[in-house]
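User: Second chain of the day. Same drill as before.
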Amino acid sequence: MTTADEQQRLVHSHNMRSPQLPHTLSQGRIYSEKSQPSFFLTLCLLVLLGIRPKRLQSQLDSDDPKSWEDFREGLIKRWGTLGITSGLVLSAATTLLFSDSVKGASLVAAFACFCATIISISFGTALTFIFTDAPAHDFKALATRPLHMLFLLSIPNMFAMGSMVALYISITIFAWTFTESTVVSVLVKLGTTAGAIVMALLFAYAAWLVKDMGKRKEEMMMKSEWRIRDED
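Assistant: Same format as last time:
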């Protein structure tokens, strides 16, 4: 008969061989009550996937097929919207590439924008085709490597954002090297500079506005649960 010490030793040995659920980001877990992600990571997840870390971790831990189907449909809708936006950026980048007035660093930035947009559209289309009819357990299998999964699903957004930044850089460089008319040149420089400042301020404002998004609702739900427990 196996003694208690031997049973404990066998259990410990089994746990060492079995894959354990990680509890920190470095181990592959996005969110835990003891180790919450930084504001930068939270902002990246909101921008790239449109989801908060706690909600994402809840999804990764979920075994409900309907939940994974809803998650898949949400991603496909985002990629569709992103494809439309990327198409507009691609059109602007193509115009810059074939313009005789765009040269030097401005042309290089326009070419970088063109390439990044092609990658974004290609990956968005490919992922949509792959996951449209994918069963829920395929997503759950991807969730066993959450960091790799997040990187894969955010590729269209990452390159789309890069293309937009490259496009604005190309336009800004062109504006600051435009010398055909003194008055027009000054106005163009002021316009692009003011536009960059406004965009930075709006992005900072949006980041500040969404940093606590969802926390109020979670606090209210927790208070409601505590109230129910007290009544019981």
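The two ends are 45 Å apart (CA to CA).

User: Great, on to the next one.
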